[in-house]
TrEMBL record:
This is Methyltransferase like 21E, pseudo. GO terms for biological process: methylation. InterPro entries: Methyltransf_16, SAM-dependent_MTases_sf. One of its GO terms (molecular function) is protein methyltransferase activity. Signal peptide: none annotated. It comes from the Eukaryota. Pfam families: Methyltransf_16 (PF10294). Keywords: Methyltransferase, S-adenosyl-L-methionine, Transferase.
Length: 231
């Protein structure tokens, strides 16, 4: 970031972030929302039946960060994985910015995720993004063998909330990261139980708060594995 976070005018930046979302007033049989990032209109189809079926504000914060910090966090030709990708907005923006993206989520989310990703990246991206199942903590060695993981970035938006897989989530972050991998993680603060996750996370990762948006209760973190030899 160019400016220290104290200089951030929370309200001003948050209204700029939220202005990237357009909700059509005309109600049609297909519901979608439009977002403006990386020079493109991105149309996201949502569903109402699960957490991953809508775009959460943390995703907007992370997309805005990626777009406005594209020099410092250059996505071009980088290997990027998103966990808990939901509707896919963050993965789409990373792809539009030039990354080689793998978007992941639970199996039941993959149909809509694939649809949104294909619709918004086809003929627009240098590297066609992949969509893969990744249930936190499940079959990690088989599906994402440590030896072949070479992610430059792990992206995550709003993956910490009242679900029973927080330990598996931590395991997954750890599994996907090598010494030089950068985690960019937008976290919505809700209840104490979930907030304790940050303390657990800090046992394995060096964590740096890179922005904070008090009016949204969202913080953006950068993290790298502890005890790395070089970074
Ligand atoms: C609050 S939503 C956030 C979605 C998206 N990142 C966003 O910010 O719009 C949480 C996401 O985590 C996914 N998720 C929840 N539990 C999971 C698990 N055990 N393994 C993998 N993904 C999971 C959900 O399917 C959902 O897409």
């Amino acid at each position: 970031m160019d400016k220290p976070r104290e200089d951030y005018n929370d309200k001003q930046v948050v209204s700029e972030i939220m202005a990237r979302c357009f909700i059509p007033t005309l109600v049609t049989s297909i519901s979608w929302e439009a977002f403006h990032f990386a020079g493109h209109e991105i149309r996201i189809t949502e569903a109402m039946d699960c957490y991953g079926a809508v775009v959460w504000p943390s995703a907007l914060v992370l997309c805005y960060f990626l777009e406005t910090n594209a020099k410092q966090y250059n996505m071009v030709d980088k290997n990027v994985i998103e966990i808990g990708a939901g509707t896919g907005l963050v993965s789409i923006v990373a792809s539009l910015l030039g990354a080689r993206v793998t978007a992941t989520d639970l199996p039941e989310l993959l149909g809509n995720l694939q649809y949104n990703i294909f619709r918004n990246t086809k003929m627009k991206c240098k590297h066609l993004p992949q969509v893969k199942e990744l249930s936190w903590g499940v079959a990690l060695d088989r599906n994402f063998p440590r030896a072949s993981n070479s992610f430059d970035y792990v992206l995550a938006a709003d993956v910490v909330y009242a679900h029973p897989f927080l330990e598996e989530l931590l395991l997954t972050f750890d599994h996907l990261c090598k010494e030089t991998t950068i985690v960019l993680w937008a976290m919505k603060f809700r209840l104490e139980k979930e907030n304790k996750f940050v303390d657990r996370f800090k046992e394995l990762f060096d964590l740096e708060e890179i922005s904070s948006f008090p009016s949204l209760n969202i913080k953006l973190y950068k993290a790298m594995k502890k005890n790395r030899r070089s970074a």
